[in-house]
Amino acid sequence: MVTPGSADYSVQPTAGGPFVRQEAGSYRYRYQQVIPQAYGNYQQKAGLWDYQVGLRAEFTGLQAQVLPAGSARQRIFNLFPAATVARTLPHEQRLQLSYARRLNRPNFLQIIALPIYTDARNYAVGNPNLRPEYVHVAELGHQVAWQATTLSTTLFGRFASQSIQSLRTIDTLATRLSGQPDFIARTSYANFGRTASYGLEISLTHPLAAWWKLTANGSFFRSQVASYAGDGTRANFTGTAYLLNTFSPTKTLAVQLSGNYRAPLVVPQGRLLAVYGVDVALRQRLLHDRAALTLRVSDLFNTRRQYTQLAADGLTADLQSKYETRVGYLGFTWFLGNNKPGGNIENQPKGDPGGFGG
């Protein structure tokens, strides 16, 4: 996969005036990524027991280049084992224990050593030495079903090494050279020790009426990260919540209303405050199920934004980032052959904030 692109940095010299492109802060880039993989999987059923083991071999080759100068390259080979043991229990119940090793790769903006200014006082720069983050996930789950109702509970633990974290510091050299009284802040990325999260997740699917189906999911867990000051760890109890309502007012019309919430979360230099939002979607089936018209609006009330509170090494900051999250999508689908609209409204893209918004 080869991704070319460009990023322009512009300033507005006077209020209400035109934006002027700044050559020093603008650039063209080329990002190439190759990830060949090989899989092996074995399954066995013995009475009420189910067994499954798997192994994925993966090579990651990526190269990021900024024109006219600046590049980063990585070549990494990894093995990712996974295993699951499950037992079927009486009364529509199932108990399952699983383990998997996973990988989170750094993205282009996190590894390219080029300053990207969001304004005159703040910039972000990648780290060419940034390595992937490795995650070990263990889960013990129980599921029970009563007619159309399903309840799942899961105890989980997720442990990451070489954790990828963003770090914000004062660039004393750039501040001195600017000649301005205000400091210039630098955001970069580093593999910062280990992180851990462990807790409980509960999921429920239940029809409240013939025309109304409820899906709810919530988690409560302890999150732990390495402290930026190098004096141990920082931790807090946090959680997430997700609620999806699916309505069928007519045989051909489906309406979905969903909301999600993430509680405050610790980071090495401070904490991320809560994030929440609401999405709505409608789908009208047409022409005897040969076609469908879909309308979706993400972040209906425009509430999704990131608030960060930082306090480390003489730097105290309250940051707010807001991307274009309230977006409308209108789509028309024509189904070929025996294909028909599914029971749920298909997930539409939610808008990618990329790396240049703020």
UniProtKB/TrEMBL annotation:
It holds the Pfam family OMP_b-brl_3. Its main location: membrane. GO terms for cellular component: cell outer membrane. Residues 8-334 form the Outer membrane protein beta-barrel domain. SUPFAM superfamilies: Porins (SSF56935). InterPro entries: Beta-barrel_TonB_sf, OMP_b-brl_3. It is found in: Cell outer membrane. Coiled coil: none annotated. The keyword Membrane applies. Gene3D superfamilies: TonB-dependent receptor, beta-barrel domain. This is Outer membrane protein beta-barrel domain-containing protein. It comes from Hymenobacter coccineus.
